[in-house]
């Protein structure tokens, strides 16, 4: 298996020259008085502004810092963001949380929308199962906006927003570059990658930019040879055909093309096309009962995540108003197969379910279940906004927004040689089928205004009126010969989703409302500013597929005090924020009967904390960067599954996923080694505190806690301006950190652990033209 895969997969690596810092950390500039910090320009409020003038908690990761830390994907840069946490199960399956706004939802296809929005340039690229895991190469800037951003960024920006902003074509001249990498992962194999870009002016008014990448990430989890016995029968199986070392490997490749045309001195149009594919084998979790990075899987595990996005931005002016139209269409295909034998084993062991699963002759069979899934997402979004000049004393940005998301869901829970009489009609060997279409629509009108009361005091306010609609239709459940209560037995009509045997689900829910922000900022002088903000965020409700009431929207209220300061003649930058948030009617998804996800509104929770980041030019060529957060997130009332049900999590219990403390620091030293040759060394440390993955007390007792961990990274390199070579080590001491813990089903007791990546040591070479 390994040899054939490596043969077909020299569709290789990227991990290369893209890197993110922990903080809003610009490079040091040279001035007569010595090294100082450069200005960072961001567009968090949908206009170009100096980071230090924006009264929002923002970390802006600019181009130079993106070329200094080792970053390939979301996991690489999130570790340096103190107020951001990610739960991940495999490449492409990430759930992002900010500031502790997390209930531990399971990111099911029929579950709640995400609470953090991820944007690629002007388009939100978050789907129901999580955002696109966009490779970070040739990126102008990454902006991380903490706290509710619903006024300008809409429904899924309830807790915050992450914006990935690509480098645009430039008519200023030809430029190009490439990067090559070779690395080795501890306990695993060899990884490698290649990346490159070209910027080519076509005339003095047009230019094109082409970017491409490919990477191979080596595996590090061993699928050990093992047997498993199902009591009914009994039937014993083995995984000898699948046993393999380092079986969780992946390949990612993609491209981006952008064209910019200046139609005249006022108007320009920029169409872009992005595409990426990630193919993965194996499972990214291990069984701690077998030892670190060891597992036993009895069915193949694989994933194929591919997507493209076509977008267009038109910018210009009408009189003294800036006008922007941003439209995009995205399509994503997720196809996979995964072992679900834990479900079969525990249900057979505890309840004798194996007696109900047999072949056409009525004989006992290998009842190992596995899942074959095909999910197709589409998303189109359109935004039209106008803005008054940025130098006006009274400034306004206003606009209209429309978004439509669809999710065509196909999930087959399969048992080989299953009797046709108990299979879903038209789907051989399928004990359970989900064949549904989900459609989410969002409509909004928004306005954001600022007024300079004095040269020092500015008042800002924003409001967004929204309407959301969620529909879910199709089929889910068992065949008619297996159940008289779920599936085909309760269908009420012919199929309305292609491929389904009939229809037992057709529901729509909608809601409307508003979200708003009020802000005041006071500038003591050009280098120091404080601000206070009250803002709200929302997330739409939706449909529960198994009867019952729809789940309602949940709302977040945020009170924040922040500061943006520069000291020591622009050599020290210190920013931060104190916040207190209330989360009402939070949406909580959990596994109910037949393993179906149910979403309920859980009541009230609250979060308070502090986040801060610092950049300090200690001396010529020596810079220190640090960032940290302390977040105390807990229930404000008991959590019960129903108003009269038992207490499943008491008031005061911590919310899951988010550690109380997370922090990072790195130091970089650059010097001239000889004429025309520069050298650098860099060291980084990241600490992530412990957290429970689940909200409920009983599940915490079973699953346990992800322990705190600390990692160290080292980098050293040389450059002569046109070429560069760099050696690096990530997770130098091979820390045994954990991203997530969980079980496969309601009655399962085997805990699976998703680890951080083990130590990676590598070498990178790049050249610019």
Largest sheet: 22 strands, antiparallel, barrel
Q: How many H/I helical runs? A: 6
Determine the fraction of residues in helical runs and give it as a percent range. Answer: under 10%
Output the CATH homologous superfamily: TonB-dependent receptor, beta-barrel domain
CATH C-level label: Mainly Beta
Alpha carbon gap, first and last residue: 40 Å
Please tally the β strands and state the result: 45
Mean of all residue-level pLDDT scores: 91
Radius of gyration: 26 Å
Class inferred from helices and paired strands: mainly beta
Unreliable segments of 5+ consecutive residues: 1-27
Strand content: over 45%
Q: What general form does the structure show? A: globular
What's the CATH topology name? Maltoporin, Chain A
Compute the number of structural domains: 1
How are the secondary structure elements laid out?
Blueprint: H1 2-8, E1 28-31, E2 34-37, E3 41-42, E4 49-50, E5 58-62, H2 63-66, H3 74-78, E6 84-90, E7 93-98, E8 116-120, E9 123-124, E10 126-127, E11 130-131, E12 139-146, H4 150-153, E13 160-166, E14 175-185, E15 190-203, E16 206-217, E17 222-223, E18 227-230, E19 235-238, E20 250-262, E21 268-281, E22 294-295, E23 302-318, E24 321-339, H5 341-351, E25 370-387, E26 394-414, E27 430-452, E28 457-477, E29 505-525, E30 528-539, E31 554-567, E32 572-584, E33 587-591, E34 597-601, E35 604-619, E36 622-635, E37 639-640, E38 647-649, E39 661-674, E40 677-688, H6 697-703, E41 709-719, E42 723-730, E43 738-742, E44 752-755, E45 760-768
Parallel strand pairs: 8-13, 17-22
Antiparallel strand pairs: 1-2, 3-4, 5-12, 6-7, 8-9, 10-11, 12-13, 14-15, 14-45, 15-16, 16-20, 18-19, 20-21, 21-23, 23-24, 24-25, 25-26, 26-27, 27-28, 28-29, 29-30, 30-31, 31-32, 32-35, 33-34, 35-36, 36-39, 37-38, 39-40, 40-41, 41-42, 42-45, 43-44
